[in-house]
Amino acid sequence: MRKLWWSLLLIGFTCPVILAQQPGAGGGATIQSPAFDATSGRLDAILMSWEQAMKPIQTASAQCTHTVVDKVLKDKEVFEGTAQFMKPNLAILDLKMKDRPQNVEHVICTGTFVYQFVPASQVVKVYEIKTGANQDNFLPFLQGMKAQDAKARYDLRLVNEDKWWIYMDILPRLPADKADFKKARLVLSSQTFLPRELRFWDVNGNENIWDIPKIQPNVALKRTDFGAPRLPTGWKWEKVPLMENPTAPRNDVPPRVFRPKQ
Q: Regarding predicted confidence, which is higher, 57 or 145?
């Protein structure tokens, strides 16, 4: 189920804690929140600018590419398509594999359920979302999360910054997060603070790369655009365990070709 959260993460490209996951991860482990000072630390200032840039965005549509690199099998899969979302908790991810369009990554979040299409088995997996008393904290990666919370949960490191891009490494602190991924790298635009790329490495060394070349904020979307899907002919529903409710202007044009720095 963690891989589904990574897909939903991309849909929620507005979150200022790009790796927000379920509360209580790590078996109740607690961490010491590092000091946060947006007036003196460059990383803190970037995180705060990111948070502020996301606040006015209520809806968005993005072009995106998801590349999965399997280090063991020496295999690479590339999916291309779009992601859409509406605050606080509605999202659609619609990607097709390059050269093999019958293989898809299609996920719909209606706010109550998450539907994940699995063409190989002709199954639509249905995840019921377990809502808590505070609806404002639902799916932080769709709604946004405070920069200070990002720094508290993850070891964030400013790797490089130039005229066009900001590069940050994200390392896990909690045991459950360490079991899920080794490292992630986030690239933000230096002009808009919108995400351009997210890549993460799992514990086996496999790599997932989300490239987001274009984001259109505040597009015309309706609540009804995120309704439950119809079951395709010959397919079946598969209910899976509950998903816990996670806690918690440009003056010029950047280069057309994006070359992430390693």
A: 57
